[in-house]
UniProtKB/TrEMBL annotation:
Reaction equations catalysed: [(1->4)-alpha-D-glucosyl](n) + ADP-alpha-D-glucose = [(1->4)-alpha-D-glucosyl](n+1) + ADP + H(+)
Sorted UniProt keywords: Amyloplast, Chloroplast, Glycosyltransferase, Plastid, Starch biosynthesis, Transferase, Transit peptide
Gene3D superfamilies found in the cross-reference section: Glycogen Phosphorylase B
GO biological process terms on file: starch biosynthetic process
GO CC annotations on file: amyloplast; chloroplast
The protein, known as: Starch synthase, chloroplastic/amyloplastic
Keyword hit for Glycosyltransferase: yes
Length: 530
């Protein structure tokens, strides 16, 4: 939805202007080059900005660019979803037509080459119905079959093309079967060189698979139905027992990474995959994600009405007033001799509206922020119809008022402006493997209010914790109840309203924190090198 009167710059665009494709050559200036250079191929279901649903797409693009900037050869392989905006891919061209196997037949595939955000990309387009539809996920085809096909088709392309990367980096359950295809099939054919690295971005998605489904793609599914391979431990003793592609990827990959050190600890202690992870603990690492500091840079951001940085923050106030004006929120006037804009904090929550993100805390925050006299903007979409209806009701209730705006959409442009406008960014997740919102928010001078879990615990440290005053950078709560959130919000509001000089210092401090992909890439390079 877009509000009547929203300035033209703030309206959602689906055309070319939404995507700005940078090049690695500009970014590599000043980045130290690695001496032992590698050829790295990411095989993934998402890549920002052309095929982005969540943080996975940002990670693939950000890590790919960072490794390119360090001198490595990097490519990304993704499905050529029907919904991908082709005009957002530079130099898109068909480079090969070849066949890959599915259910007794060889299916023709087109391989296209292009460049996205400076990163070379290969897009695989099967001639059957896979990856057709208006969205990345949720098409009328069987998604598990489609990603099994894609995983083998990527290896088949490497074989027919004579490509021998040093590293094949797979992500999530969608490409969890690729290590099985590699070690039990293609390694015995022509692919001898690659090592396989698996990054698990969210342990809640397992890739549940029937044995006969895997068999349709040329492997004997029954051979993997053991505890030490790919059986879904939750189904042992049931009829039928099932496989987990994510577990198979854990067992068959040379190295496993998850996206924060705290999430690694959490996954070793809870969840049915903890046993498999413990058995493979020696190859399991936790590396905190980074953010793309070129894409997310308030000093150069093309979406902002005013630029700013940590030393000159005046532009942030302009961005706040611009967003307030566009959304119909009060932004001017004098109250007790003080500018209204300086006394009313703007809280922003940019998120997928799913249970993981703490929906009950988001809905409570809407009421609590209003009671505290602040303003709040929620930007996000729900995949569940019930959740969508609940937030539509909240939008109907609040959007006509003067303090709350609920925007049930996703807009890259608007998200940039909201981060720039925000005084605080709220991330009240039930669990959060890494989280990007808190890091992006800090990059734009929004002080984070977060629940202590996963990557949030690794990046945000409480302002009232005197034992870690030197790294304090936000407001943290541990409980999953509304009272715990109230306490954190209350402390943040008091700090903002009663200590303006100290607040400005916090804003400058969080903007200077280096959460760039270059730091993260260095740790991945250590994993890539055996």
């Amino acid at each position: 939805m877009v509000f009547a009167g929203l300035p033209q710059m703030m309206k959602f665009h689906s055309g070319k202007e939404t995507f700005h494709l940078g090049t690695s050559s500009d970014a590599s200036a000043g980045v130290e080059q690695d001496s032992d250079l590698l050829h790295i191929v990411h095989v993934t279901a998402e890549m920002a900005p052309i095929a982005k649903v969540g943080g996975l797409g940002d990670v693939v693009t950000g890590l790919g660019r960072a490794c390119l900037n360090r001198g490595h050869k990097v490519g990304v392989m993704i499905p050529f979803y029907e919904c991908i905006p082709k005009h957002c891919i530079n130099e898109l061209a068909l480079i090969k037509t070849y066949n890959s196997y599915h259910d007794g037949n060889w299916v023709a595939c087109n391989a296209y080459r292009g460049e996205v955000s400076g990163v070379p990309v290969i897009l695989i387009e099967p001639s059957n119905h896979f990856f057709k539809g208006k969205n990345i996920y949720g098409g009328s085809y069987n998604e598990l079959d489609a990603y099994l096909f894609f995983s083998r088709a990527c290896l088949e392309w490497m074989q027919v093309n004579g490509t021998q990367p040093d590293i094949i980096h797979v992500h999530e359950w969608q490409t969890g079967a690729l290590p099985l295809f590699y070690w039990d099939m293609y390694h015995f054919l022509s692919l001898q060189k690659p090592r396989i690295v698996l990054t698990i971005h969210n342990m809640e998605h397992y890739g549940e698979c029937r044995q006969e489904q895997l068999s349709k793609f040329g492997l004997d599914g029954s051979a993997y139905a053991t505890e030490d391979k790919a059986v879904d431990d939750r189904t042992v003793g049931h009829n039928p027992e099932r496989l987990s592609l994510l577990k198979g990827g854990i067992v068959y990959s040379n190295a496993i990474v998850t996206v924060s050190p705290t999430y690694l600890k959490e996954t070793l202690c809870s969840g049915w995959l903890s046993g498999a992870l413990m058995r493979n603990r020696d190859k399991y690492s936790g590396i905190l994600n980074g953010i793309d500091t070129e894409m997310w840079n308030p000093a150069t951001d093309v979406y902002l009405p005013a630029k700013f940085d940590a030393s000159k923050t005046e532009g942030k106030r302009i961005c706040k007033q611009f967003v307030q004006r566009g959304l119909g929120l009060p932004f001017q006037g004098i109250k007790h001799g003080i500018c209204v804009a300086d006394q009313i904090p703007l809280v922003v929550c940019i998120t997928r509206l799913v249970a993981q993100k703490g929906l009950h805390l988001i809905t409570h925050a809407i009421k609590q922020v209003e009671e505290l006299g602040g303003q709040m903007v929620v930007l996000g979409r729900a995949s569940d119809d019930r959740v969508e209806r609940e937030f539509e009701g909240l939008a109907e209730l609040h959007n006509k008022g003067s303090n709350i705006r609920i925007l049930l959409m996703y807009s890259e442009e608007l998200s940039h402006m909201l981060y720039a406008a925000a005084d605080m960014v709220l991330v009240p997740s039930m669990y959060e493997p890494c989280g990007l919102a808190q890091m992006i928010g800090m990059r734009y001078g929004a002080v984070p209010i977060v629940r202590k879990t996963g990557g949030l615990a690794d990046t945000v440290f409480d302002m009232d914790d005197q034992s870690h005053a030197e790294i304090a950078n936000g407001f943290v709560f541990e409980g999953i109840d509304e009272g715990s959130l109230n306490c954190a919000l209350g402390r943040a509001f008091s700090y903002y309203q009663e200590k303006p000089k100290e607040w400005k210092a916090i804003v400058q401090k969080v903007m200077r924190i280096d959460n760039s992909w270059n730091n993260t890439a260095g740790k991945y390079i250590e994993i890539y090198n055996p």
